[in-house]
Amino acid sequence: MTTIVARDTIRAPQRAGDRIFSTATVVAGSLILAVLAAVAAFLLVQSLPAFVATPADFKGDAANFWAYVWPLAFGTLWSALLALLIAIPLAIGIALFISHYAPRKLAQGLGYIIDLLAAVPSVVFGLWGIGVLAPLLQPFYTSLVEWFGWIPLFAGPVSGTGRTILTVSIVLAVMVLPIITAICREIFLQTPVLYEEASLALGATRWEMIAMAVLPFGRSGIISASMLGLGRALGETMAVAMVLSPSPQVIFALLTSQNPTTIAANIALNFPEAHGTGVNILLATGLVLFVITLAVNMVARVIINRRKAFSGAN
Protein backbone atom coordinates (compact mmCIF):
# COMPACT_ATOMS: atom_id res chain seq x y z
CA MET A 1 0.00 0.00 0.00
CA THR A 2 1.31 3.42 -0.98
CA THR A 3 1.64 5.70 2.02
CA ILE A 4 1.00 9.44 2.11
CA VAL A 5 4.72 10.09 2.37
CA ALA A 6 5.33 7.97 -0.70
CA ARG A 7 2.70 9.87 -2.64
CA ASP A 8 4.35 13.17 -1.72
CA THR A 9 7.69 11.95 -3.04
CA ILE A 10 6.25 10.91 -6.41
CA ARG A 11 6.84 13.67 -8.93
CA ALA A 12 6.55 13.82 -12.68
CA PRO A 13 9.89 14.07 -14.46
CA GLN A 14 10.73 17.58 -15.60
CA ARG A 15 11.28 17.98 -19.30
CA ALA A 16 13.62 20.49 -20.89
CA GLY A 17 10.70 22.51 -22.22
CA ASP A 18 9.18 22.74 -18.72
CA ARG A 19 12.44 24.00 -17.26
CA ILE A 20 12.88 26.56 -20.04
CA PHE A 21 9.31 27.83 -19.67
CA SER A 22 9.56 28.01 -15.88
CA THR A 23 12.85 29.91 -16.07
CA ALA A 24 11.45 32.28 -18.72
CA THR A 25 8.43 33.16 -16.58
CA VAL A 26 10.61 33.85 -13.55
CA VAL A 27 12.94 36.04 -15.62
CA ALA A 28 10.00 37.93 -17.17
CA GLY A 29 8.39 38.58 -13.79
CA SER A 30 11.69 39.68 -12.28
CA LEU A 31 12.36 41.93 -15.28
CA ILE A 32 9.08 43.76 -14.74
CA LEU A 33 9.93 44.39 -11.10
CA ALA A 34 13.45 45.49 -12.03
CA VAL A 35 12.19 47.96 -14.64
CA LEU A 36 9.62 49.34 -12.20
CA ALA A 37 12.27 49.75 -9.51
CA ALA A 38 14.66 51.37 -12.00
CA VAL A 39 12.02 53.90 -13.10
CA ALA A 40 11.18 54.72 -9.48
CA ALA A 41 14.86 55.11 -8.57
CA PHE A 42 15.53 57.34 -11.58
CA LEU A 43 12.58 59.60 -10.80
CA LEU A 44 13.50 59.78 -7.12
CA VAL A 45 17.16 60.67 -7.73
CA GLN A 46 16.33 63.24 -10.39
CA SER A 47 13.61 64.76 -8.20
CA LEU A 48 15.81 65.53 -5.20
CA PRO A 49 16.93 69.01 -6.45
CA ALA A 50 13.27 69.98 -6.93
CA PHE A 51 12.45 69.40 -3.28
CA VAL A 52 15.01 72.03 -2.18
CA ALA A 53 14.52 74.45 -5.10
CA THR A 54 14.05 78.16 -4.44
CA PRO A 55 10.86 80.05 -5.39
CA ALA A 56 12.70 81.60 -8.35
CA ASP A 57 12.99 78.16 -9.97
CA PHE A 58 9.22 77.67 -10.18
CA LYS A 59 6.84 79.17 -12.70
CA GLY A 60 4.12 81.28 -11.15
CA ASP A 61 3.88 82.19 -7.49
CA ALA A 62 4.78 78.81 -5.97
CA ALA A 63 6.94 79.10 -2.87
CA ASN A 64 8.10 75.47 -2.94
CA PHE A 65 7.64 72.25 -4.83
CA TRP A 66 4.53 71.12 -2.97
CA ALA A 67 2.78 74.41 -3.62
CA TYR A 68 3.70 73.99 -7.30
CA VAL A 69 2.56 70.37 -7.68
CA TRP A 70 -0.65 70.58 -5.62
CA PRO A 71 -2.77 72.35 -8.31
CA LEU A 72 -1.43 69.92 -10.91
CA ALA A 73 -2.28 66.89 -8.78
CA PHE A 74 -5.73 68.34 -8.12
CA GLY A 75 -6.35 68.87 -11.84
CA THR A 76 -5.20 65.32 -12.58
CA LEU A 77 -7.51 63.74 -10.00
CA TRP A 78 -10.41 66.12 -10.71
CA SER A 79 -10.50 65.51 -14.47
CA ALA A 80 -10.08 61.75 -14.03
CA LEU A 81 -12.86 61.59 -11.43
CA LEU A 82 -15.24 63.52 -13.68
CA ALA A 83 -14.36 61.21 -16.56
CA LEU A 84 -15.19 58.16 -14.44
CA LEU A 85 -18.52 59.64 -13.37
CA ILE A 86 -19.42 59.93 -17.05
CA ALA A 87 -17.87 56.69 -18.32
CA ILE A 88 -18.89 54.13 -15.67
CA PRO A 89 -22.70 54.30 -16.16
CA LEU A 90 -22.27 54.27 -19.95
CA ALA A 91 -19.81 51.37 -19.81
CA ILE A 92 -22.07 49.27 -17.56
CA GLY A 93 -25.08 49.98 -19.78
CA ILE A 94 -23.22 49.08 -22.97
CA ALA A 95 -21.74 45.94 -21.39
CA LEU A 96 -25.18 44.79 -20.21
CA PHE A 97 -26.70 45.47 -23.62
CA ILE A 98 -23.98 43.45 -25.36
CA SER A 99 -24.07 40.57 -22.90
CA HIS A 100 -27.80 40.23 -22.12
CA TYR A 101 -29.98 42.23 -24.51
CA ALA A 102 -28.54 42.54 -28.01
CA PRO A 103 -28.87 39.78 -30.64
CA ARG A 104 -25.68 37.80 -31.09
CA LYS A 105 -24.66 39.34 -34.44
CA LEU A 106 -25.33 42.87 -33.24
CA ALA A 107 -23.52 42.18 -29.95
CA GLN A 108 -20.42 40.94 -31.78
CA GLY A 109 -20.31 43.95 -34.10
CA LEU A 110 -20.90 46.41 -31.29
CA GLY A 111 -18.22 44.71 -29.19
CA TYR A 112 -15.69 45.08 -32.03
CA ILE A 113 -16.54 48.77 -32.43
CA ILE A 114 -16.13 49.45 -28.70
CA ASP A 115 -12.80 47.60 -28.67
CA LEU A 116 -11.59 49.60 -31.69
CA LEU A 117 -11.97 52.83 -29.70
CA ALA A 118 -8.98 51.71 -27.64
CA ALA A 119 -6.83 51.77 -30.80
CA VAL A 120 -7.59 55.40 -31.66
CA PRO A 121 -4.54 57.61 -30.86
CA SER A 122 -4.98 60.21 -28.16
CA VAL A 123 -4.02 62.96 -30.64
CA VAL A 124 -7.12 62.11 -32.68
CA PHE A 125 -9.27 62.42 -29.57
CA GLY A 126 -7.63 65.77 -28.86
CA LEU A 127 -8.37 67.05 -32.36
CA TRP A 128 -11.95 65.82 -32.05
CA GLY A 129 -12.28 67.59 -28.72
CA ILE A 130 -11.00 70.89 -30.14
CA GLY A 131 -12.68 70.85 -33.53
CA VAL A 132 -16.02 69.15 -32.82
CA LEU A 133 -16.85 68.67 -29.15
CA ALA A 134 -15.86 72.06 -27.69
CA PRO A 135 -17.77 74.20 -30.26
CA LEU A 136 -20.74 71.84 -30.04
CA LEU A 137 -20.95 72.07 -26.25
CA GLN A 138 -20.31 75.80 -25.86
CA PRO A 139 -23.98 76.88 -26.35
CA PHE A 140 -25.01 74.16 -23.90
CA TYR A 141 -22.50 75.47 -21.38
CA THR A 142 -23.98 78.96 -21.75
CA SER A 143 -27.43 77.58 -20.97
CA LEU A 144 -26.08 75.68 -17.96
CA VAL A 145 -24.60 78.88 -16.52
CA GLU A 146 -27.90 80.71 -17.07
CA TRP A 147 -29.95 77.94 -15.42
CA PHE A 148 -27.62 76.67 -12.69
CA GLY A 149 -25.10 79.47 -12.25
CA TRP A 150 -26.01 79.66 -8.57
CA ILE A 151 -24.33 76.26 -8.12
CA PRO A 152 -20.54 76.73 -7.66
CA LEU A 153 -19.72 73.94 -10.13
CA PHE A 154 -21.62 75.75 -12.91
CA ALA A 155 -20.64 79.30 -11.99
CA GLY A 156 -19.62 81.69 -14.77
CA PRO A 157 -18.26 83.39 -16.67
CA VAL A 158 -18.67 80.68 -19.26
CA SER A 159 -15.83 79.88 -21.63
CA GLY A 160 -16.30 81.31 -25.12
CA THR A 161 -14.42 78.43 -26.76
CA GLY A 162 -15.88 75.46 -24.87
CA ARG A 163 -12.37 74.27 -23.94
CA THR A 164 -13.10 73.56 -20.28
CA ILE A 165 -12.34 70.89 -17.72
CA LEU A 166 -15.75 69.35 -18.43
CA THR A 167 -14.91 69.02 -22.13
CA VAL A 168 -11.63 67.35 -21.23
CA SER A 169 -13.48 64.99 -18.89
CA ILE A 170 -15.88 63.98 -21.67
CA VAL A 171 -12.93 63.27 -23.98
CA LEU A 172 -11.24 61.21 -21.26
CA ALA A 173 -14.52 59.36 -20.63
CA VAL A 174 -14.65 58.33 -24.30
CA MET A 175 -11.02 57.20 -24.08
CA VAL A 176 -11.49 55.00 -20.99
CA LEU A 177 -14.88 53.69 -22.13
CA PRO A 178 -13.43 50.71 -24.10
CA ILE A 179 -11.37 49.52 -21.12
CA ILE A 180 -14.24 49.59 -18.63
CA THR A 181 -16.77 48.20 -21.12
CA ALA A 182 -14.58 45.28 -22.22
CA ILE A 183 -13.85 44.15 -18.67
CA CYS A 184 -17.46 44.56 -17.50
CA ARG A 185 -18.71 42.66 -20.54
CA GLU A 186 -16.46 39.69 -19.83
CA ILE A 187 -17.42 39.72 -16.15
CA PHE A 188 -21.14 39.79 -16.93
CA LEU A 189 -20.74 36.90 -19.38
CA GLN A 190 -19.11 34.82 -16.63
CA THR A 191 -22.17 35.04 -14.38
CA PRO A 192 -23.25 31.41 -13.65
CA VAL A 193 -26.19 30.47 -15.85
CA LEU A 194 -27.83 28.72 -12.89
CA TYR A 195 -28.05 32.04 -11.03
CA GLU A 196 -29.77 33.68 -13.97
CA GLU A 197 -32.13 30.76 -14.63
CA ALA A 198 -33.05 30.52 -10.95
CA SER A 199 -33.97 34.22 -10.87
CA LEU A 200 -36.09 33.90 -14.01
CA ALA A 201 -37.74 30.74 -12.69
CA LEU A 202 -38.83 32.63 -9.57
CA GLY A 203 -40.69 35.12 -11.77
CA ALA A 204 -38.10 37.88 -12.06
CA THR A 205 -38.01 40.05 -15.15
CA ARG A 206 -34.80 40.32 -17.14
CA TRP A 207 -33.84 43.56 -15.39
CA GLU A 208 -34.64 42.07 -11.96
CA MET A 209 -32.50 39.06 -12.85
CA ILE A 210 -29.64 41.40 -13.78
CA ALA A 211 -30.07 43.37 -10.55
CA MET A 212 -30.20 40.24 -8.37
CA ALA A 213 -27.66 37.99 -10.09
CA VAL A 214 -25.46 39.71 -12.67
CA LEU A 215 -24.56 42.99 -10.97
CA PRO A 216 -23.81 41.49 -7.52
CA PHE A 217 -21.63 38.84 -9.16
CA GLY A 218 -19.71 41.45 -11.14
CA ARG A 219 -19.43 44.12 -8.44
CA SER A 220 -15.74 43.67 -7.79
CA GLY A 221 -15.08 43.40 -11.52
CA ILE A 222 -16.85 46.71 -12.10
CA ILE A 223 -14.77 48.35 -9.38
CA SER A 224 -11.49 46.95 -10.69
CA ALA A 225 -12.40 47.96 -14.27
CA SER A 226 -13.14 51.47 -13.02
CA MET A 227 -9.78 51.58 -11.28
CA LEU A 228 -7.99 50.55 -14.47
CA GLY A 229 -9.91 53.22 -16.35
CA LEU A 230 -8.90 55.72 -13.69
CA GLY A 231 -5.26 54.78 -14.18
CA ARG A 232 -5.65 55.39 -17.92
CA ALA A 233 -7.28 58.78 -17.36
CA LEU A 234 -4.65 59.88 -14.84
CA GLY A 235 -1.80 59.37 -17.29
CA GLU A 236 -3.38 60.89 -20.41
CA THR A 237 -1.24 63.65 -21.91
CA MET A 238 -1.91 64.84 -25.45
CA ALA A 239 -5.70 65.02 -25.39
CA VAL A 240 -5.62 67.10 -22.21
CA ALA A 241 -2.80 69.32 -23.44
CA MET A 242 -4.59 70.00 -26.74
CA VAL A 243 -8.08 70.65 -25.40
CA LEU A 244 -7.54 72.36 -22.06
CA SER A 245 -6.75 76.01 -21.46
CA PRO A 246 -4.52 75.49 -18.42
CA SER A 247 -4.25 77.62 -15.30
CA PRO A 248 -2.09 76.67 -12.27
CA GLN A 249 -4.96 77.04 -9.81
CA VAL A 250 -7.32 74.86 -7.81
CA ILE A 251 -10.65 75.60 -9.50
CA PHE A 252 -13.82 73.54 -9.06
CA ALA A 253 -15.88 75.43 -11.66
CA LEU A 254 -16.49 73.26 -14.72
CA LEU A 255 -17.39 75.80 -17.41
CA THR A 256 -14.97 78.72 -17.07
CA SER A 257 -12.04 79.55 -19.32
CA GLN A 258 -9.62 79.08 -16.40
CA ASN A 259 -9.10 75.39 -15.64
CA PRO A 260 -6.65 73.37 -13.56
CA THR A 261 -4.21 71.46 -15.71
CA THR A 262 -2.87 67.95 -15.17
CA ILE A 263 0.60 66.70 -14.31
CA ALA A 264 1.06 64.85 -17.61
CA ALA A 265 -0.12 67.78 -19.73
CA ASN A 266 2.09 70.21 -17.77
CA ILE A 267 5.14 68.01 -18.40
CA ALA A 268 4.35 67.73 -22.12
CA LEU A 269 3.90 71.49 -22.53
CA ASN A 270 6.92 72.64 -20.49
CA PHE A 271 9.56 69.94 -20.95
CA PRO A 272 10.87 71.08 -24.38
CA GLU A 273 11.95 74.48 -23.01
CA ALA A 274 12.92 73.38 -19.50
CA HIS A 275 16.55 73.49 -18.38
CA GLY A 276 18.54 73.09 -15.20
CA THR A 277 16.40 72.77 -12.09
CA GLY A 278 13.28 73.16 -14.23
CA VAL A 279 13.86 69.67 -15.64
CA ASN A 280 14.19 68.27 -12.11
CA ILE A 281 10.93 69.96 -11.11
CA LEU A 282 9.07 68.36 -14.01
CA LEU A 283 10.60 64.98 -13.20
CA ALA A 284 9.50 65.42 -9.60
CA THR A 285 5.92 66.02 -10.75
CA GLY A 286 6.30 62.84 -12.80
CA LEU A 287 7.29 61.04 -9.61
CA VAL A 288 4.09 62.26 -7.96
CA LEU A 289 2.06 60.99 -10.93
CA PHE A 290 3.94 57.68 -10.77
CA VAL A 291 3.02 57.27 -7.10
CA ILE A 292 -0.64 58.16 -7.76
CA THR A 293 -1.04 55.69 -10.64
CA LEU A 294 0.82 52.97 -8.72
CA ALA A 295 -1.50 53.46 -5.75
CA VAL A 296 -4.56 53.24 -8.03
CA ASN A 297 -3.41 49.95 -9.54
CA MET A 298 -2.55 48.51 -6.13
CA VAL A 299 -6.03 49.38 -4.86
CA ALA A 300 -7.54 47.68 -7.92
CA ARG A 301 -5.49 44.55 -7.25
CA VAL A 302 -6.57 44.47 -3.60
CA ILE A 303 -10.23 44.80 -4.57
CA ILE A 304 -9.93 41.92 -7.02
CA ASN A 305 -8.22 39.67 -4.48
CA ARG A 306 -10.80 40.36 -1.78
CA ARG A 307 -13.63 38.89 -3.83
CA LYS A 308 -11.88 36.64 -6.33
CA ALA A 309 -13.67 33.57 -4.95
CA PHE A 310 -17.04 35.14 -5.77
CA SER A 311 -16.28 36.93 -9.02
CA GLY A 312 -14.97 36.25 -12.50
CA ALA A 313 -12.66 39.23 -12.22
CA ASN A 314 -9.67 37.23 -11.09
From TrEMBL:
Keywords tagged on the record: Cell membrane, Membrane, Phosphate transport, Transmembrane, Transmembrane helix, Transport
Annotated ABC transmembrane type-1 domain residues: 73-300
Subcellular location(s) per record: Cell membrane
Record-linked Pfam families: BPD_transp_1
Membrane topology, from the record: Multi-pass membrane protein
GO cellular component, one term: plasma membrane
Transmembrane segments: 20-45, 65-98, 110-134, 140-158, 165-189, 281-304
Single GO molecular function: phosphate transmembrane transporter activity
Main location class: membrane
Recorded family membership: Belongs to the binding-protein-dependent transport system permease family. CysTW subfamily.
Name used for this protein in its record: Phosphate transport system permease protein
